[in-house]
Amino acid sequence: MALFGNAHTVDPASAQQEYARLLGQGERVQAAYLLIRDTILFTDRRLILVDKQGITGKKVEYHSIPYRSITHFAVETAGTFDLDAELKIWISGSQMPVQKTFTKGVDIYEVQAILTQFVAR
Q: In this prediction, what percent of the chain has a pLDDT beyond 90?
């Protein structure tokens, strides 16, 4: 379990098991990240954002973003005073990006490389 304020990578096999009900037949989790309470899954078909809501986190919203619908994305690295890194993803048909914040513990360059791999297909 992550400590408050830390993000970290999750073993893809563990994420595959935990989120099996969300995955299509033959779909594989390639990378996963835990961001305090939320999770980001990179599968071989799409990006899945797991957004836990409310105080208890029992209510969960799942966003499924096919890679082909991502028009562009940006990463903002952590700075001296701002220790958080950000990922912004623009989806066709939306003007505002989906934004996720990564606190220390995750290499934002790694996240960017994984996203590039799937979007460039």
A: 56
